[in-house]
Amino acid sequence: MSDEITPTGAEVKWEGKIIRAGTEHFRYDDGTEASRDKVWHPGAVGILALDDEHVWLTRQPREVVGTLFSLEIPAGKLDVLGEPPLETAKRELAEEIGKAAEHWEELLAFYTSPGISDERLRLYLATGLSDVPSGAPEEEDERIEILPWPLGRLDEAIEQCDDAKSLIALLWLTARTGR
Amino acid sequence: MSDEITPTGAEVKWEGKIIRAGTEHFRYDDGTEASRDKVWHPGAVGILALDDEHVWLTRQPREVVGTLFSLEIPAGKLDVLGEPPLETAKRELAEEIGKAAEHWEELLAFYTSPGISDERLRLYLATGLSDVPSGAPEEEDERIEILPWPLGRLDEAIEQCDDAKSLIALLWLTARTGR
Fold it and tell me: Domains in chain A and their CATH numbers?
């Protein structure tokens, strides 16, 4: 097995509002070459927001998979140039569920689909929650429903959830608490 | 909040070897409309393959995220037209780690990145493992390393893993076994 992989070029074939898509080329250090479909993504954050009794979830539309009520943790894309991921997480927690958190900890970071996309998501644990004054909701936020989900019913949340980042957060919590 | 969402059209702007990318348009039942970047993906399977002492993992190149040694469960795309997902899972388990399984159970299904992609992955539990005769390895399989990972060291696998589907499988296993 070779030990290195060198990108040798890429063709971006389409640029959307958030992502770009095209082909990237590589050379292994044994001389063989490969080409891969690739989606370039700015990256994202997700927040496991806990108080003593609840994990804070949302239901929101995910148009491209045909559902209006995807059960998810609060999350957002790294779509503000130069904003550190932790700041994005704090902003999204306030915008999506109207909360601030006293304690923040990065739990895990992962690629959502590393065969085809460079989207990397950082998952934060947020505790010590308090309300923040709500500003004018953004257009897309009007469709987000806020759900304080009882910690004693984590299994039901996992059953209803079909979003990878949220499953990782809920399974991490289940593994830690032994519920 | 509206109760329905109707796709009103789509433009595929690029077609790769595996995925397509472009824009899809929607109308909510309150009359508002939206457009979204979209990646069309054929779907995938992942396999949590267990014997009494190990979970069977792989290390393999993931060129588009720049790593040669991504720690993952066996997995594959639904890239054979008309093949049922369970058959794909059986084929991938044989091709990637040379095993067959007596018992199969679908554990979870999820979208890897539902804001931008319709990729849905079915996760199977495979037990009662036995060796299958290895055929000629496919070109891409030559770069897959097989790792029987001790169940007593699941925490280390989770630490080293940054692939969403594999984290879901390993965290599910940790939650179930209480390790």
Answer: 5-40 (no CATH), 44-177 (3.90.79.10)
